[in-house]
Amino acid sequence: MFPIGTQFPEIEVVTTHGTMNLPKDMKGKWFVLFSHPADYTPVCTTEFVAFEKRLEEFRKLNCELIGLSIDQVFSHIKWIEWINEKLGVQIHFPVIADDCGKVAETLGMIHPAKGTNTVRAVFIVDPKGIVRVIFYYPQELGRNIDEILRAVRGLQVSDEKGVAIPAGWPDNELIKDRVIVPPAKDVATAKKRPGEYECFDWWFCHKPL
Known about the structure:
By secondary structure, the chain is an alpha+beta fold. The chain has helices at 42-53, 55-60, 73-87, 102-106, 145-161, 187-196, and strands spanning 11-15, 18-22, 30-36, 63-69, 95-97, 120-125, 131-137, 179-181, 198-201, 204-207. Helix content is 31%, strand content 24%.
């Protein structure tokens, strides 16, 4: 289990696009690694389609997608062919073959209380190979891909602007698409805050991007 803020472990993986070394091969890029319990399962299939339909949006953010499933690579290839033939969607992101479960075990994707299959884990990793977000979903619940995309966007805005991102951004109930200014760390700054930004109080100030 790797806490957020730590280095993504160095692993060599076999994928539908060949062998990859992570996070080395993604250096300079963001990437989202997401796991699946198995090939040819309905919820996983809907997720593959949803990820693919948003692939270009992720790539505009300099972010690549990498899937993982507890099956062999030839099974992945056939499943991807089935999705293209039956659903008319061609999958362009690589899918890791983890039939022995070694990658899933390394990354803490197997939660014993939920069985021996992987849970639906999501790792968002930045260009320096640092794990920035981890989501876990049970096998019975499909992911909201738009939330994963929002998380990547929000992290990039936070890094670039030095701000915090409110709930539901960019459509927050209180401040809409504005962002939160970090709290003052001394009395003098706290006194100046209401004159510099729009504030509910000195500790809760916000501004447009």
